[in-house]
Amino acid sequence: MKKITVGNWKMNLNLTDSLVLAKNYVKEFKDFTGTAVACPTFLALDGVAKVLAASPLKLGAQNMFWQPIGAYTGEVSPADLRDCGCAYVIIGHSERRQWLGETDQMVNQKAKAALAAGLTPIICIGETLQQNEQDERENVLINQLRQALNGLSLNNNQQLMIAYEPIWAIGTGQAITTKDADEIHGFIKAYLRKIMNSAAEINLHLLYGGSVTANNAPELARLSSVDGVLVGGASLNATEFLRIAQAFNK
Ligand code: PEP
Predict the structure, then answer these.
(1) pTM of the full predicted structure?
(2) Average pLDDT over residues 65-84
(3) Which of 61, 108, 118, 167 measures 20 to 30 Å from 76, CA to CA?
(4) How far apart are CA 31 and CA 8, in angstroms?
(5) Range of the domain at 32
(6) Are strands 120-125 and 228-231 parallel, antiparallel or unpaired?
(7) What is the pLDDT of residues 80-109, one digit of tens each?
(8) CATH of residue 30
């Protein structure tokens, strides 16, 4: 299975700096042969799409709404993301769940709408530090997956990404250990095999996210249970993001 590296720029860059980073990506990735995705803010999508057009890099959004059109002030439709050149969309990031009250039901509606619009959803799941310490991780993940994937099936042309992002590892510099990543990814994959239709076996990728850097990427990339990574902080440096992507394209 081809591994994938996704960069989540979050709200860290203004428009000018987003274009500068996109240009640096293009320079760094000129000989890259794998799959790497840049996810700028909504407002930067159009400009970044133009910069990335002649490169192997793909474009993703950080969020979307589940309705195709209508009176939904402030929201952005899946079709508009496609028109901007997006192939991917992050859904249910823990920061959206924390600050915007995004629920598993919303994630479910968004994932279905993304697939229907021809986008590949990257659904984020993950437990808090407290849930982890109280041994609730597996239950939390199962609940999130069960609700997020409810009624969702894939056809042969559709792809779905799940990003396991332990909340305590996001932006903290404290990534999961390789052993723990392998164990929990194995657990998640076994559950996904149980609940998803058979096309999902081939078209479903399980990414890890949380303090991935160029230093820990090679070890994570060697795990067959890790199909790629969702990278926040380290994606803001084009050279480091390339090193991570190269580790996942061996
Ligand atoms: C993220 O934003 O999803 C993320 C994993 O961030 P970081 O790599 O900075 O921990």
Answers:
(1) 0.97
(2) 98
(3) 167
(4) 22
(5) 4-247
(6) unpaired
(7) 999 999 999 999 999 999 999 999 999 999
(8) 3.20.20.70
pLDDT class of 156 with cuts at 50, 70, 90: confident
Nearest atom, ligand 1, residue 124 CA: 3
Q: Provide the 10 A C-beta neighbour count for residue 190.
A: 9
Measured by CA distance, the residue closest to atom 4 of ligand 1 is: 232
E-only strand ranges, the chain: 4-8, 35-39, 58-61, 88-91, 120-125, 160-164, 204-209, 228-231
Both tokens of 249, joined, read 């394209």
Determine the average pLDDT of the residues in 170-190: 96
Query: Phi and psi at residue 121, in whole multiples of 5°?
Result: -75, 140
**Cα dist from 245 to 104, 113, 219, 241, whole Å:** 29, 28, 13, 6
pLDDT tens digits, residue range 13-44?
999 999 999 999 999 999 999 999 999 999 99
Q: How many domains does the chain have?
A: 1
Identify the residues whose C-beta falls under 6 Å from ligand 1: 8, 10, 165, 170-171, 209-212, 230-234
Under DSSP, is residue 204 helix (H, G, I), strand (E, B) or coil?
strand
201 pLDDT above the threshold of 80: no
- What are the residue numbers of the active site? 93, 165
